[in-house]
Amino acid sequence: WVDKTMFVDLANILAQDDRRLPSGQFIFITDSIIDGNFMLHHFLSMYLRGNGSVQFLATAQLFSHYLLAGKKMGLNLMSAREAGKINFIDCVSHPSVLTQCDLTVDHASVLNSLAEQIEKAVMSSRGPVCIIVEELSVLLSLGAPPVAVLDLVRRLRALTHIHADRVALVVAMHADPPGEGGPVRAHLAYVSDLVLSIAPLRTGASRDMHGQVTLLRTLAPPRLVHFKVRDTTVAFFAPGTSAAVL
Questions:
Q1: For residue 214, how many other CB atoms are within 10 A of its CB?
Q2: Nearest C-alpha neighbor of 10 from the set 199, 200, 210, 215
Q3: Is 98 within 8 Å of 139 (Cβ atoms)?
Q4: What is the DSSP letter of 62?
Q5: Which residues pair with 133 in a beta bridge?
Q6: How far apart are the first and last CA of the chain?
Q7: What is the DSSP letter of 103?
Q8: How far, in Å, CA of 220 to CA of 177, rounded?
Q9: Closest CA to 244 of 214, 194, 201, 195
Q10: 92-130: burial string, b at 16+ Cβ within 10 Å, e else
Q11: DSSP at 106
C-alpha cells in the first residue's frame, strides 16, 4: 500500500502528471532553515512509481536514509536498485570521489567523472529518467570551485535537451548560510524552469503548519503554498485553507 496523497497534491500544485515529471525540465530546490529533503522523496517516488528510473547523486544522506523513508511510503528502494531502476551514486559512505575536491587535484576532472557516469547511464536507458543531485552545497564546502560545480549541472542539464522527451533534472541546494554559494544559487535559479523555495512560515512558527513553498516559474507570478510534514506523507495547502484555520 502506498499513500499517494502527497504525490498527487504536490503534482497538482506543480501542474504535473502525478506519475512522472514533464520531460526536458530542470527543477531547482532551495531551502532555508527548514530541510527540504522531502521534495527529493517526492520526485524519487514519482519516477519509480511511474515506471521510470532515477540517477541519484547522493552527497549528504546514505542510501539507508532513503530506504527507510521509502518503506514508510510503501516504496521498496532495495528492489528498485536491484532491478536497475535507481542508480544511487553514493558519495557519502564512499567519499573518495568527493574528498578529492581539495587543492591537490583538478576539481573539474573529479566532477567530470561524476557527470560522465550519469551520462553513460542515461544514454544506455530507454524510458523516462530523473536525474537527482542531492546537495550541491557539499561540493562547494569541500573546495570545488563554483565554476566546476556549475559545469557539472550544465552537463546534466544538457541531457534534458538531448533527450527532451524523457529526461528531467532535479537539483537541491541549501540556502544557509546566506552568503555561502550565493552566486551559484542565483545562477541555477535563473537558468532553471521551476524553482521550489522552501522556508519557514512568514508569520513565524506554528504547531499546525511546518513551512511554506514558493513556486517560481519563468514568466509566471510566484505561487505560495503551506505544508505540514506527517509520518508517511506531506500535506500541502493554499494559505489559509488548512483544517487548522478553517
A1: 14
A2: 215
A3: yes
A4: -
A5: 57, 171
A6: 30
A7: T
A8: 28
A9: 201
A10: beeeebbebbeeeeebeebbbebbeebbebbeebeebbb
A11: -
Q: If you write DSSP's letter for every residue of 141-197 in order, what string do you get?
A: HTT--HHHHHHHHHHHHHHHHHTTTTEEEEEEEE--STTTTHHHHHHHHHHSSEEEE
Distances (CA, A) of 147 to 15, 113, 144, 184, 188: 33, 16, 8, 8, 12
**Residue 239 DSSP SS3:** coil
Phi and psi dihedrals of 110, rounded to 5? Answer: -65, -50
Q: Which residue is it, cell 517526492?
A: 42
Reading the block at residue 153, the C-alpha cell is: 549541472
192-241 residue pLDDT tens: 999 999 998 877 766 778 899 999 988 889 999 988 887 777 888 888 76
Question: pLDDT tens, 119-153?
Answer: 999 999 989 999 999 999 888 887 788 998 999 99
Amino acid at 184: V
Contact status, residue 194 vs residue 217, Cβ threshold 8 Å = yes
**Residue among 23, 58, 20 at smallest CA distance from 42:** 20
Cell digits for 218? Answer: 519563468
Please give the sequence-ordered ranges of beta strands (E in DSSP) within 37-78, or none if there are none: 53-58
pLDDT in tens, 28-48: 999 988 888 888 988 898 888
Residue 191: φ, ψ to 5°? -90, -10
Length of the chain: 246
